[in-house]
Design goal:
The protein is of the alpha/beta class. The protein has 2 domains: 23-85 and 375-412, Urease, subunit C, domain 1, CATH 2.30.40; 87-374, Metal-dependent hydrolases (TIM Barrel, Alpha-Beta Barrel). It has 13 helices and 16 strands. Strand 1 (31-40) and strand 2 form a beta hairpin. The model is unreliable at 1-18 (pLDDT under 50).
């Protein structure tokens, strides 16, 4: 037994140092020029054979009049390549979960208790996660790192994927509170040992407890002389002045209608996460200014009566209705790496390629509150840019060759590439 344990620990230690030679890139200083690429701006516009000038991390110029002979400029020739904004994972626990349920010490995404609005996911974010570099290799440069749990789980923060520690990683701190709505989908006979137990009534009671919490928080925050500080009520102040959003995790229509009640009673800025049946009430979501983050594109439909390809068609329905939506990748095995291919599937089922791109760039930035500085290639924004030899939405041609975060030329090495090289060398594979 001791021998087995020693081998296991040795294996974990060996894996743990696999990427220790990859350090964050230094700050971008001076001018960088990406010349003659096909630029997909993220706004729906495509600029062929166009150059980008970056100055101290910001996009300074876009066009064909950029001086390619600028003294001291670093120039990357993107001729024949595709240039995109860096992709954004809108909802993930990357950096909070490393080896799922197998190694508990590597998981820090869930707290005890049901009402934890004062929990901040960012302070637990691990910048040395081995998953992060594999995401960067796929063009994913940003993520909204979210806590998990029961009912109100705490705040998420937007991070950039090239940092020494969580303080360096922060791109927008505490942007949203997360409410995991109890299921209102009736499943008769599932785990109910008490025949008198009504799971829907129990779920509605818990939802009412959350509403009561917000009513008390509203009264607390409306008072200027509370005497005693309540950390939980203080933590949701941003919901009432709309400096924070409320992300409500739910899927079926009944749950989404309940989410609309939160908008009507409290005036919250609400985003639905999951929302697999959002296609059924898209006009109502638009009417109430509710945005959507679609989690599982490559999945079965929620209802047995739905079309088998309904998850693929939902983005186009939301687009047609004018609902602001983003696409993310919450699949446990891919851990975010299929983000752009999820968008590619949506492009095959009704979206244009540029609309699908916006769902993982500019739309995501708008929902997360960072569209003023990221999500698209526009003058004045941070230079968060990726370059591919082919179409990034197509897994057959997507090969990311270069990536910039705030103009910093980041290292795209990762554990997968290192292992590939190691065994290619061993077996003399070209």
């Amino acid at each position: 037994m001791k021998k087995i344990l020693f081998i296991l620990l040795t294996s974990i230690a060996s894996n743990a140092i696999a990427q220790d030679n990859i350090s964050p890139a230094p700050a971008n200083k001076g001018i960088t020029i990406i010349k003659n690429g096909t630029i997909h701006t993220g706004t729906g516009t495509v600029l062929a054979n166009t150059s980008i000038q970056v100055n101290n991390g910001k996009i300074e110029k876009i066009g064909n009049d950029i001086n390619l002979n600028t003294t001291g400029a670093t120039i990357f020739d993107a001729t024949g390549m595709q240039v995109y904004p860096g992709f954004i994972l809108s909802n993930t626990n990357i950096g909070l979960r490393e080896i799922a349920n197998q190694v508990k010490a590597s998981n820090d995404y869930n707290e005890l208790g049901e009402l934890n609005p004062n929990i901040k996911s960012i302070v637990a974010y691990n910048t040395e996660s081995k998953i992060i570099n594999t995401l960067r290799s796929n063009g994913i440069l940003f993520a909204n790192v979210t806590p998990r749990g029961s009912l109100i789980a705490g705040t998420s923060s937007v991070v950039q994927f090239d940092a020494w520690n969580w303080e360096d990683a922060v791109y927008l701190k505490d942007n949203a509170q997360h409410f995991y709505m109890p299921s209102l989908l009736s499943r008769p006979g599932r785990n109910n040992v008490d025949p008198n137990f009504d799971p829907i009534k129990a779920a509605r009671d818990r939802i009412e407890n959350v509403k009561q919490f917000f009513r008390l928080a509203k009264a607390y925050n409306a008072s200027n002389n509370n005497g005693v500080t309540n950390l939980k009520f203080e933590a949701v102040k941003g919901l009432f002045d709309k400096s924070q959003k409320l992300f409500i995790h739910c899927n079926v229509v009944k749950e989404m209608l309940t989410a609309i009640d939160f908008v009507k009673e409290f005036g919250f800025d609400v985003t639905l996460v999951g929302a697999s049946e959002s296609w059924q009430i898209a006009p109502l979501l638009k009417q109430n200014n509710i945005s959507v983050i679609l989690e599982e594109m490559h999945s079965l439909p929620t209802s047995v009566d739905d079309d088998i390809d309904q998850p693929f068609k939902t983005p186009a329905i939301l687009q047609k209705a004018g609902v602001l939506f983003a696409i993310t990748d919450e699949h446990a095995e891919s851990t975010g790496r299929n983000l752009m291919f999820n968008a590619g599937t949506a492009a095959a089922y009704g979206l244009t390629k540029e609309e699908a791109l916006a769902a993982i760039t500019l739309n995501a930035a708008k929902i997360l509150g960072v569209a003023n500085k990221s999500g698209s290639i526009e003058v004045g924004k941070d230079a968060n840019i990726i370059i591919s030899t082919g179409d990034v939405l197509d897994m057959r041609t997507s090969v990311i060759t270069k990536a910039y975060i705030n103009g910093r030329d980041i290292n795209l090495d990762d554990k997968h590439k290192q292992l590939n090289k190691k065994y290619s060398d061993k077996y003399s594979i070209k």
